[in-house]
Specification:
The protein has nine helices and nine strands. It is α/β, with parallel strands linked by helices and 284 residues long. The chain has one domain: Rossmann fold. The protein has a seven-stranded parallel beta sheet with strand order 3-2-1-4-6-7-9, sandwiched between helices. A two-stranded parallel sheet has the order 5-8. β6, α5 and β7 form a beta-alpha-beta unit. α4 packs parallel to α5. It is globular.
């Protein structure tokens, strides 16, 4: 391990974005600690057992396992320079259709799992007064979509957590960025990464039902290239000045601009009502 090599800790590394980010970081000659939920050998063999790769078994929802994986990484490499919180999965369901367990489990992985890993890593970054936390959100964390209400809520939470983290960590020399990918050609729409609610309500067939049909037809035809996304993450990890928000994909940018435009229109239409709620004498 050379002094120039950064140490990356990447969750959800067995497939999708996680796997592509691992490959891109390995190509940059940095060190990768990749977490998977089952076979270590499977990922190592798939990548040709490079010397700068360590694979560890870790379920982000298991706090004890997370603490142990991070501790082992520190023991081996002395530090973690970049944390990529990528582990997560989708839930396609109308808000009313999703069961309490389905919604809770989605939050358990996408939000509380991310918190487990972040809280395990931050003490070491604070000690070094350096580091970069990169949280993978989604286009669904920037705007609501039919059929993605619960999943989107988990990603809205990731957006908010990262904004606060960025403010709290900046004086300590640590960066925080939330990355919002659009629709990329990964296995996200496969059964391996996406759960659909067991409860189907026929009244939502024209809305959520149509979204299910679109999702099936869109699988493996999404506009985004995950290999290019991974290269963007490597650039981000090496940036001296990092943004708090990084939307990736033209579709994400379009959706965000539409949302801000609509938001501004609503503000103008309701400005008198908005400002009428202040105490008398408050200057707007």
């Amino acid at each position: 391990m050379s002094k120039k090599q950064k140490v990356w800790f990447i969750t959800g590394a067995s497939r999708g974005f996680g796997l592509e980010i691992v490959k891109a970081v390995l190509d940059s000659d940095d060190i990768v600690v990749a977490t998977v939920r089952n076979s270590v050998e499977l990922l190592s063999d798939k990548l040709g057992n490079p010397k700068n790769l360590s694979v560890v078994i870790m379920d982000v929802t298991n706090e004890k396992q997370t603490l142990e994986a991070v501790s082992e990484t520190i023991e081996k490499y002395g530090r973690i320079d970049i944390l990529v919180n990528n582990a997560g999965y989708g839930l396609l369901a109308a808000v009313e259709e999703s069961s309490t367990d389905e919604a809770r489990n989605n939050f358990e992985t996408n939000v509380f799992g991310l918190l487990n890993v972040t809280k395990a890593v931050l003490p070491y970054m604070r000690k070094e007064r350096a580091g970069h936390v990169i949280n993978i959100s989604s286009i669904g964390g920037l705007s609501g979509f039919i059929g993605w209400g619960v999943y989107g809520a988990t990603k809205f939470a990731v957006e908010g957590l990262t904004e606060s983290l960025a403010l709290e960590l900046a004086p300590l020399g640590i960066k925080a960025t939330v990355v919002a990918p659009g629709f990329f050609r990964t296995d996200f729409l496969d059964n391996s990464s996406l759960i659909q609610s067991s409860n189907i309500i026929s009244d939502y067939d024209e809305t959520v039902g149509e979204m299910r049909r679109i999702a099936n037809n869109l699988n493996k035809k999404q506009p985004g290239d995950p290999v290019k996304l991974a290269k963007a993450i490597v650039l981000l990890g090496n940036a001296k000045e990092a943004p708090v928000h990084l939307p990736l994909g033209s579709d994400t940018l379009k959706v965000f601009k539409e949302k801000t435009s609509n938001f501004e229109r609503d503000i103008q239409a309701w400005k008198d009502v908005i400002t009428s709620t202040d105490h008398e004498g408050i200057i707007s």
